[in-house]
Amino acid sequence: MGFTRTTLRKTGADVHRLGLALNYGMAPDELPAALDRGVNYLFWTKTARQMKAPLKDALKRDRESLVLATGPSLGWFGGNVRRGCESILKELEIEYIDVFHLFWLGKMSAWTRGTVDALLELREEGKVKSLAVSIHDRPRAGELAEDSPLDLLMVRYNAAHPGAERDIFPKLDGDKQLVAYTATCWRRLLKAPAGWTEPVPTAGDCYRFALTNEHVSICLNGPASLGQLDENLAALEKGPMDASELAWMRRLGERVHGKTFDLA
Known about the structure:
The protein is an alpha/beta fold. The protein has one domain: NADP-dependent oxidoreductase domain (TIM Barrel, Alpha-Beta Barrel). It is 35% helix and 18% strand. It has helices spanning 31-36, 52-62, 78-92, 113-124, 138-146, 164-167, 203-212, 226-236, 243-257, and strands spanning 5-7, 14-16, 18-21, 41-43, 67-70, 97-102, 128-135, 152-156, 177-181, 216-221. The strands form 2 sheets. Strands 3-4-5-6-7-8-9-10 form an 8-stranded parallel beta barrel, surrounded by 5 helices. A two-stranded antiparallel ribbon has the order 1-2. Helix 3 (78-92) runs parallel beside helix 4 and helix 7 packs across helix 8. It is globular, with a radius of gyration of 18 Å. 40% of the residues are buried.
């Protein structure tokens, strides 16, 4: 499908590989124009109240072509998970959620028999199409990548924190897919560290770095404006990074991380 598009294996949905996080600085009235550019993997949480109305309108207009990734604020118990799902369905006036998350596993949600059963029941009922978690704990994410009913994992991955290459990517079974976030390392990769004499990457370079890895299906970006989104999309049109570009990004990543590391 080329560098910029992929298929969600669980649902067959065609998605742009640059996902759009709606809980950052983009203005609500810019969302329709962003969607016109082909971006259609939308990550939304209830904290992004300002985006609720335009998201709701977009889902009414073109539900089948949009992929909504969301989840409950808390998921400690099966009841939290079910109520959170049904609340989102009601609030957005939709019949299903494409990618249903347990957020920040171990911090804001739990992986227990109760929460897993709730996830599976919601998927069986058709209220959600695929199951996901977002997680910082790489060893645990590796275990879930290897053996769990999940369809996607959302994990930190960037040139300064490439440890997922060791702990998670090799363990992904054939059905699971990975969503990367924090590609710019919270913008730290966009600034020259002390003594750095090589070029400084753009945000688009950071997204290309993540998406060049064959294990990354989607990378979230959180542009502050439509203009920033356009810059990021234009960068992806260059295609995957070559070996010299990847080496450059890794050199910078080591400097930003503060040490030479082995997939830290």
